[in-house]
Design a protein that fits this description.
single chain; alpha+beta; 5-stranded mixed β-sheet; 9 helices; 5 strands; 43% helix; 15% strand; elongated
Length: 229
């Protein structure tokens, strides 16, 4: 039996995504309706909302959708290069907004605070990155810096660069952070060794290593909380 498609232009005003947003506000729209506004149009046999629902169902969730490449999005019938780019750009803006939202959380009083700052930055990456949070005497974040960027399995950290940046920032405390794209929170032997080396160097320079966090998409592992320090 052939599916009959009703174009969005023939829908009631309350059901059209753009008009619905104007009348009821952004919170009234589903994920599919918001995406339909982005892509603008569907096809002869499928509305933009129906196409968006199909994409979301295929991706599983917005986090997974945000990790898709242009070529992966273009595998969905009805999505060309321009629409794929629009989707990626919108989701990236959302990710950056989340990262900016954490700026207000400037004082670290727990490992969770550090996780909330770094998760939007490295939690969803498909490769490993090593970052350092530089703190003052009040445990307030002075700055944060990427120290290295590697592949899926690991990354190399230059200990000299860690403390060069610490001295330049006038930091008295550091929180080490890196992500595990695999989702495995267990620290490797290499993770433990680099932590020990940095901590030893910090003792000589009177810069405390306050913690080391391993971060994934939704969880984290704290060396301090787990008693490794």
């Amino acid at each position: 039996m052939e599916t009959i498609n009703f174009p969005i232009k023939n829908w009631s005003e309350d059901d059209k995504p753009r008009e619905k947003l104007m009348l009821k506000g952004k919170d009234a729209l589903s994920d599919a309706e918001l995406m339909a506004i982005l892509i603008g149009s569907g096809s002869r046999n499928e509305s933009a909302v129906a196409l968006s629902k199909r994409i979301l169902a295929g991706a599983g969730n917005l986090n997974s959708l945000g990790k898709m490449s242009i070529s992966q999005l273009m595998q969905f019938k009805g999505i060309g290069e321009a629409k794929a780019i629009t989707i990626i750009a919108a989701l990236e803006l959302g990710r950056r907004r989340r990262a900016e939202d954490t700026v207000e959380l400037s004082k670290i009083i727990s490992s969770k605070n550090a996780f909330e700052i770094m998760q939007p930055i490295i939690g969803e990456l498909s490769h490993e990155e090593f970052w350092v949070l530089f703190l003052n005497n009040s445990n307030k974040v002075i700055s944060k810096s990427q120290l290295s960027k590697g592949g899926i399995a690991g990354t190399i950290v230059d200990i000299r660069l860690v403390f060069k940046l610490a001295l330049e920032n006038g930091a008295t405390g550091l929180i080490l952070c890196h992500n595990h794209p695999s989702g495995n929170l267990k620290p490797s032997d290499a993770d433990k060794q680099i932590t020990k080396k940095i901590k030893t160097a910090g003792e000589i320079l009177d810069v405390k290593i306050l913690d080391h966090l391993i971060i994934t998409e939704t969880k984290y592992y704290s060396f301090v909380d787990e008693g490794i320090f």
